[in-house]
Amino acid sequence: MTNETRNTRRAAARLLGPVGPELSCEECFAQLDLYVEAELSGGDADSAVPGMRAHLEGCPACREDHESLKEFVAAADG
């Protein structure tokens, strides 16, 4: 597969959005702690909060909140 084909597919995926369930930013924020706890405990975070991964991939603000919370919880537990 050429780089041009990969770039075209990525652009199409961004335009079409996620295939599965979708969360709003408000729903993401309300469930972010559950998702992070599942990630850090080795659980299935995607099953715990369906649609979260797709939302985080498409929303830079929520992705930043996720990364910050995950780092904070990991440091507090460590």
Mean pLDDT: 87
Helix share of residues?
over 70%
Computed over alpha carbons, the radius of gyration is 14 Å
How many helices? The count is 5
SSE ordering = HHHHH
Describe the structure in your own words.
76% of the residues lie in helices and 0% in strands. The chain has helices at residues 3-16, 25-40, 45-48, 52-58, 60-77. The longest helix is centred in the last third of the chain and has 18 residues, at 60-77. It starts with a helix and ends with a helix.
Write the layout of secondary structure elements.
Blueprint: H1 3-16, H2 25-40, H3 45-48, H4 52-58, H5 60-77
Helix pairs in contact: 2-5, 4-5
List keywords for this structure.
single chain, 78 residues, mainly alpha, 0% strand, elongated
